[in-house]
Design a protein that fits this description.
about 50% strand; four-stranded antiparallel sheet; 11 strands; seven-stranded mixed sheet; mainly beta
Length: about 110
């Protein structure tokens, strides 16, 4: 069974940083295309960042230069380093593989 559990969210002021983590199990993580998606309050899901098994990455334009996605295959962990956070980054963040997303973590950016 594919299991994904995100953590690391919280309340942060604009301009601050957070690092999200996701522990994965139940599948071959090292061979998997992984993504971080988010759902802002009252809005649709949005793909934030992705990382391939060859470590190639991609980002939505709104986070380019501020967020960094990474993975540790030895630990089955996915990360999202978020810098220079803005109020519009407020959302529940999920890690996902294909159509499966795990339990999310809430990020609130507010002064």
């Amino acid at each position: 069974e594919v299991q994904l559990q995100a953590s690391g969210g919280g309340l942060v002021q604009p301009g601050g940083s957070l690092r999200l983590s996701c522990v994965a199990s139940g599948f071959d993580f090292s061979r998997s295309f992984m993504t971080w998606i988010r759902q802002p309050p009252g809005k649709e899901f949005e793909l934030v960042a992705s990382i391939r098994d060859d470590y190639r990455v991609n980002y939505v334009d709104s986070v380019l230069g501020r967020f960094v996605i990474s993975r540790d295959n030895a630990k089955n962990m996915l990360y999202l380093q978020m810098n220079d956070l803005k109020p519009e980054d407020t959302a529940v963040y999920y890690c996902s593989r294909a159509t499966v997303r795990g339990q999310g973590t809430l990020v609130t950016v507010s002064s």
